Amino acid sequence: MSLVLVTRDAGVATVTLNRPEAMNALSRALRAELAAAMRALAADDEVRAIILTGAGERAFTAGLDLKELGADTGSLGAANADGADENPVRAIELCPQPVIGAINGVAITGGFEVALACDILIASTNARFADTHARVGILPGWGLSQKLSRIIGLSRAKELSLTGNFLGAEAARDWGLVNRVVAPEELMPAAQALARDIASIEPAMARPYKKLIDDGYALPFGEALALEHRTTSALNRMVGAEDVEARRLAVMTRGRERAG
Asked: Among 5-9, 18-22, 62-66, 220-224, whose mean pLDDT is lowest?
């Protein structure tokens, strides 16, 4: 049985963590399969958007497989290495396509870090988030200590990470961690609809725009503005008037269809 399932439909790929009996815990084998799957999708020009979710309704992923780590902690270093085959977070982050996390259940510790690697999060009402690194006695190695505070604020991040308490789906939405919360049966349809919207954007625009947002977010504001100026000055010079007109008409048509 494959630990990671991948399906494709009209430019949208869906990646499903497939260890529901173990709450989709990130065993060494699952980490390697997930990283490989994301690298393959990143190189697939036919894929314009990616959905990442977990099998079942209990867990997106419960994080690193603690039973496995209890027998051998040697894999931790490999899992945290930037270029390692077992670092799925880095593989997700390097995808040029937007990645939507459809959080169907708990996302705990390493699983929380996998969720934070996604570009957009949609949560089921079953979703809950927790950072139990401090309770387990392992510091995060996939970016949680730095990403979380930038998303929800410093004091809220400290509250979660220094208690190990769970954050429910509605609170996660209110804190800006997830974009929206839907009923469990509506999660995948909502994620698929969003993915189709993203897939309708030309990759020649979507991919550099995603990169511009990510690269700028990692910089001080003034440097980010300078980055935008340099990037857009170069790319926008390549746009012809006929291209703008064709796209303007397409936007107007889409607006009328949505309104109707």
From this structure: 62-66
Query: Beta 128-130 vs 166-168: how paired, if at all?
Result: antiparallel
DSSP annotation of 105? S
pLDDT in tens, 26-55: 999 999 999 999 999 999 999 999 999 999
Query: The whole model's pTM is what?
Result: 0.89
Q: What whole-number distance in Å separates Cα of residue 46 and Cα of residue 38?
A: 14
Which tokens go with 127? 């979703």
Q: How far apart are CA 259 and CA 253, in angstroms?
A: 10
CB-based contacts of 238: which residues, under 8 Å, 6+ apart? none
Give how far the C-alpha of residue 111 lies from the chain's centroid of Cα atoms, to the nearest Å.
11
Helices marked H in the chain: 28-42, 66-71, 75-80, 88-93, 110-117, 133-136, 144-152, 154-163, 169-174, 187-199, 203-217, 221-236, 241-259
Give CATH 3.90.226.10 domain extents, the chain.
Answer: 4-199
Question: Domain 4-199, what fold?
Answer: 2-enoyl-CoA Hydratase; Chain A, domain 1 (3.90.226)
Mean pLDDT for 151-155 is: 97
Task: Read off the pLDDT of residues 208-243 as tens digits, 9 standing for 90 and up.
Answer: 999 999 999 999 999 999 999 999 887 777 776 666
Instruction: List 8's β-bridge partners, or say none.
Output: 13
| Radius of gyration of the chain measured on its C-alpha atoms | 19
The candidate with the shortest Cα–Cα distance to 59, out of 29, 104, 26, is 104
